[in-house]
Design brief:
The chain has a three-stranded antiparallel β-sheet with strand order 3-4-5. The chain has helices at residues 47-53, 56-65, 71-83, 89-96, 104-118, 131-154, 167-176, 187-200, 207-216, 222-234, 241-254, 259-267, 269-272, 289-305, 310-323, 326-330, 337-347, 355-376, and strands at 8-9, 12-13, 31-34, 39-42, 45-46. A hairpin with a 2-residue loop joins strand 4 (39-42) and strand 5. It is globular, with a radius of gyration of 23 Å. Helix 5 (104-118) runs antiparallel to helix 6, helix 8 (187-200) runs antiparallel to helix 17 (337-347) and helix 14 (289-305) packs parallel to helix 17 (337-347). By secondary structure, the protein is mainly α. It starts with 7 loop residues before the first strand and ends in a 26-residue tail after the last helix. The longest helix has 24 residues, at 131-154. The structure holds acetyl coenzyme *A. Residues 19, 237-239, 241, 266, 269, 275-282, 331, 333, 336-338 line the site of acetyl coenzyme *A.
Length: 402
């Protein structure tokens, strides 16, 4: 119970809203989200339409600069991203120091943080005209860095980017091409990746985006702010859930595929500590529109690639059981974006420990757009208040008397 008298300090009353369930931290013109109706729009465009018709870099431009690019603008944007896909060889030396089993998210956030040291002009707030360059560098280099961990885990040499390819195909080339044989990107795989990245591109003031804004609100540079966002995304209650989902589905399969048993465990989450990963959302209380698109895409992609993944059936079984169960109905727990995305990533050949990295590549334009908006609207430094629950004033006790 909260002692209401604690809500007052010398400067007035304080609102206590743990987890910011009902507290707006900012005004934003980037993403519209209606959790009751299951609506998601970037800069006014429906997510369904963007996923069907746009390329990821078009959506990135839209989020960051506010309008869909003209052909000329897009060509220039893509060209400048291509020009920056290579990563400073000295960054490779830092990378070489990581152990082979380092989690790719730890590597990614560390190397993005290192970028602030490689580009010191980024912490000169008096050079706002450099911001576009930092934006392009991040968009260009994140996929390159992301593939290094995978290559190392396989004992393979890293691939340099191949700039004749589009953004998604280039990533797939850096992941899967080997120096000893020809590699051609499967257009089905590249298109599936394009859709997944678009669906993850922004989601207004979620945990990682709020982190980016909070860090950036102290006027910290873009690289440091994005690195903090990557770390926030890593947690299993946020972006890390996509890895947890596949591991959970695997566990259920190895345990005989008894979906009902796991539904029961989730219903007793408080005692068992087991949550159905990929279920529930802070804002969506009806359905997650991204999950709808991804569920359909999972069927399509697996069919087109001729992949038969038994965990897809387990996922569908869990969803159906949960949708008919009072516990989940009452709490409005529906599959979220992460429930089916891992199944697609797996079909594309992406290893499980890279799933959250894929989320980070997708979310990058959203983080950048939110950071830029915060700077441009001159939001004040973020500094939440607290309600003190500790000891009243007491006297120091010398160590010999404790
Ligand atoms: N499985 C079982 N029970 C759940 C689940 C779940 N996945 N999610 C919520 N609940 C229950 C809670 O135990 C709680 O029950 P109670 O009313 O009896 O106390 C009730 O539903 C409300 O849950 P909260 O944790 O209070 O909801 P909150 O909005 O704080 O959390 C969250 C949202 C973190 C997404 C939560 O639903 C969860 O942990 N889901 C699993 C992890 C996950 O999939 N995260 C990805 C989210 S999407 C994204 O970040 C991209």
């Amino acid at each position: 119970a909260i002692d209401i008298s604690n809500l007052r300090d010398q400067t007035g009353f304080i609102t206590l809203d743990k987890g910011y369930k009902n507290t707006g931290a900012t005004q934003s013109g980037i993403t519209f989200l209606d959790g009751e109706e299951g609506i998601l729009r970037y800069r006014g465009y429906a997510i369904e339409e963007l996923a069907e018709k746009a390329s990821f870099l078009e959506v990135a431009y839209l989020l960051i600069y506010g309008e869909l690019p003209t052909q000329d603008q897009l060509t220039k944007f893509e060209a400048s991203i291509r020009r920056h896909t290579m990563v400073n060889e000295d960054m490779r030396k830092i990378f070489e120091g990581f152990p082979v089993n380092a989690h790719p998210m730890g590597v990614l956030s560390s190397l993005v943080s290192a970028m602030s040291a490689f580009y010191p002009d980024s912490y000169n707030d008096k050079l706002p005209d450099q911001t576009d360059l930092h934006i392009v560098r991040l968009l260009a280099k994140l996929p390159t860095i992301a593939t290094w961990s995978y290559k190392k885990s396989q004992g393979h040499p890293v691939n340099y980017p191949k700039n004749s390819l589009d953004y998604c195909s280039n990533f797939l080339h850096m992941m899967f091409a080997l120096p000893v044989e020809e590699y051609t990107v499967d257009p089905v795989v590249a298109e599936a990746l394009n859709v997944l990245l678009i669906l993850h591109a922004d989601h207004e003031q979620n945990c990682s985006t709020s982190t980016v804004r909070l860090v950036g609100s102290s006027r910290a540079n873009l690289y440091s702010s994005i690195s903090a966002g990557i770390n926030a995304l890593w947690g299993p209650l946020h972006g890390g859930a996509n890895q947890e989902v596949i591991e959970m589905l695997e566990d259920i399969r190895n345990d005989g595929g008894d979906v009902a048993k796991y539904i029961e465990m989730a219903k007793n989450a408080k005692q068992t500590g087991f949550r159905l990963f990929g279920f529930g959302h802070r804002v969506y209380k009806n359905f997650d529109p991204r999950a709808k698109i991804i569920k359909k895409a999972a069927d399509d992609v697996l069919n087109k690639l001729g992949v038969n993944d038994p965990v897809l059936e387990i996922a569908k079984g869990l969803e159906e059981a949960a949708l008919n169960d009072e516990y989940f109905i009452q709490r409005k727990l529906y599959p979220n974006v992460d429930f089916y995305s891992g199944i697609i990533y797996r079909a594309l050949g992406i290893p499980t420990n890279m799933f959250t990295v894929m989320f980070a590549i997708g979310r990058l334009p959203g983080w950048i757009a939110q950071w830029k908006e915060m700077r441009e609207t001159k939001d004040p430094i973020g500094r939440p208040r607290q309600v003190y629950t500790g000891s009243p004033l007491r006297s120091f006790v010398p160590i010999t008397e404790r």
